[in-house]
Amino acid sequence: MTAALAEKHGTDAPAADDTPRRPPTRRTKRERAFDDVPRWQIYVPLGLYLIFTLIPFYWMLLFAFRPAGSTSLVPWPMTLDHFSKVWNERSFGIFFQNSMIVGVATLVATTLVALSGGYALARFDFRIKKGFMLGLLCSQFIPGALMLVPLFEIFKNLQLINSLGSVIIAETVFQLPLSIILISGFIKNVPVSLEEAAWVDGCGRFRAFCAVVLPLLRPGLIAVGSFAFVHSWNHFLFALMFLSEQDKQTIPVGLNTLIGADSVDLGALAAGGVVAAVPVVIVFAFIQKWLVTGFSAGAVKG
Amino acid sequence: MAQAAAVAEQSRPHGPPRRRTGATPRRLPYLLIAPAALLMLGFIAYPVISVFYYSLQNYNVTKPWRNGFAGLDNFTKIFTQDDQFWSTLAFSGQWVVTQVALQLALGLGLALIVNQTFIGRGFARAMVFSPWAVSGVLTSTIWILLYNSSTGFSRYLADAGIGSYGTSVLSDTGTVFWAAALAELWRGVPFFAILILADLQSVSKELYEAASVDGAGRLRQFFHITLPHLKDAIVLATLLRGVWEFNNVDLLYTLTGGGPAGETTTLPLYVANTGIEGHDFGYASALTTVAFVILLFCSILYLRLSKFGGDPK
Questions:
Q1: Which range is least confidently modeled, A241-250, B61-70, B222-231?
Q2: Which residues, 6+ apart, have CB-to-CB distance to B121 below 8 Å?
Q3: Residues of the domain holding A58
Q4: What's CA A217's distance to the chain center, in Å?
Q5: Is A277 a domain residue?
Q6: Distance from B80 to chain A by nearest Cα, in Å?
Q7: Alpha-carbon span B39 to A2, nearest angstrom
Q8: C-alpha span between B210 and B27 (Å, rounded)
Q9: Which of A133, B42, B115, B306 lies in the 20 to 30 Å Cα band around B9?
Q10: Complex confidence, ipTM
Q11: How many CB atoms lie within 10 A of CB B227?
Q12: Where is the segment annotated Disordered (chain B) (predicted)?
């Protein structure tokens, strides 16, 4: 079979039966799979794309670590002046703390609410299900930027302006629809029979869910939770609008202030960028391998 | 106990044996969606309705004497007198189409490459996906450093004889579109690459083997197996991304501020300026309503034309 395949495909896998029809080439060293691609077709475009991806990151690190006024292309001699300036003088220390609170609170709130809603959608038929689904889908078309004014009025009435609570609520709400759709997809992929077996063993629905379904949702929950964290860490408009006091602002707002300064201090800007990037990079490194499996577990197919 | 549970199971096939918990299965789904539904009613549905309501009003904080019911005046003004509406709408369209097309093409290529087996694949995936997690403001920060005319990358390109010294690509109306587009592309491609790579995991290997046996080359395999398999994922990803690119203002707001000379003002950016800086909330609401209807119409048209989920695989 392998030999037949290799022959049809025109590669030179060592044939088991009769003499090879082509002179053996370098490739015969290992048996080539039917879908194998010449190495250069992988490495050349990949290398080019890596350059495009990594130069901007390098550029930021370069500006953040080299002394002001230097035009060297390597960050050496290295200095941490820009960081201490940004962290202390430009209050990035406080911004970092605020962003962390918003990110973690949004993560927890989004995951809990979406688990509950996603479970209902995956496991029950109920009267307003279709309407609820439609609402979730339609909400994807609503530009958050255009909801700023009415949202501002709501939060003013709730006395949440200049409180991180307003940003946490707004981020959670706009993160919910996608999270619910994703999580209900993940739950649908867990066979009901597993839960039923636990019910027969005397578990209530909640205990059965925690014991049987929850562990299987791990990749999906990691994907959804990290989305929520990264999104709220990155998002900028709500914090810009709802938090006007400086000690309540978040990192993206702080960066925007640096960009908008009359004479942009590039070193400080780059250092601020690094501070903004570090938590996301850590989260990303942690979830990177879950990301693809998490999605292929049924996210796209719903 | 187990037997009793099994009997109860038979009589109510869709739930665990009823226990002391207060929630009956009839009420349970409503209780479960209640938190999500209440949050979305209060913070999405209500603002949307208030936008629709204000679109029919004259409502400007700085001109309170004119406030009141306006009928369709705002809408008439949009379609007959407002040149900026049309120019920002055209720019939004250009921006969305450019971004979605290029992000899809590059993301698809990238996904196909990192789906192969090769040495260093895990590392390569992590690297090429990494801008996915970068925010619009951070993207602006990074590209401002790159585009800076005195110490940016362009200076080094000029040193090497490419381009000229002192060019600021972000303040030149001829270059600003592609300068901003490149920055957005940089962080947008990984989204497509991740989604498409995820979907590639579920293509059956046997299909390729069968195609090989039938003598189909790699190109034909791509067009007859891979692409049809990816179709739904691609339609969904392009739609979500298109809507997202239309609505998102972070990058352009911080990178170009809509300038130079309004050259990169998208419709949402124009609306935000009208509503927030111009305090003309009635007119901004009408613009929002029009934008929303356009977006919804285009999305439905797109799903229809692409026959989403139509043919079974």
A1: B61-70
A2: B114
A3: 2-79
A4: 17
A5: yes
A6: 22
A7: 58
A8: 51
A9: A133
A10: 0.81
A11: 12
A12: 1-23
